[in-house]
Amino acid sequence: MAGGAARVLLAALLGALPAQAERELRFRPPAEAPVRLFTEPELARYDGQQEGQPIYLAVKGVVFDVTSGKEFYGKGAPYNALVGKDSTRGVAKMSLDPADLTHDTTGLTEEELKSLDDIFNNVYKAKYPIVGYTSRRILNEDGSPNLDFKPEDQPHFNIKDEF
User: Fold this and answer.
1) pLDDT tens string 131-161
2) What is the pLDDT confidence band of residue 85, given thresholds at 50, 70 and 90?
3) pLDDT at residue 142, rounded to an integer
4) Residue 154's closest CA among 133, 139, 138?
5) DSSP the chain
């Protein structure tokens, strides 16, 4: 009964709203800025070293805003080494070794690749907003578009899972 009464009250309240207010309640544009491409030097500017600046971390070419986890990723924090770059290999290996703080997944074991997918989906995608992608993901080294790039052909990548 209480659920039915709540629906009646909601319907009455919505019926009393002007049409414009009702449309605004149903459609709200995203508050975040649109996603963008980041070059390595651009991404490096978001390394958590400057107070008040967002903190960005890329995994699998996807750039996340990890500012809300400042206690983990900010200046002097335990995982600060991961930010300002694509740290895919380091995340997969659970390593902060500078040699592992790269996008390169060559030679990772099946277990490390599974760990990467789990952390990507259950930590980063679940907790942090996507703000962009690394340019390396879709551009050639000289900055020209990679005409052969097809997201569906990338290892461990499913564009439908990113949104």
Assistant:
1) 988 988 777 777 787 777 665 554 444 555 5
2) very high
3) 77
4) 138
5) -HHHHHHHHHHHHHHHS-HHHHHHHH----SSPPPEEE-HHHHHTTBS-STTS-BEEEETTEEEE-GGGHHHHSTTSTTGGGTTSB-HHHHHHT---GGG-SS--TT--HHHHHHHHHHIIIIIHHHS-EEEEEGGGTB-TTS-B-TT--GGGSTT--HHHH-
Nearest to 146 by CA among 156, 136, 134: 136
Contact 95, 25 (CB under 8 A): no
Average confidence (pLDDT) over 46-60: 95
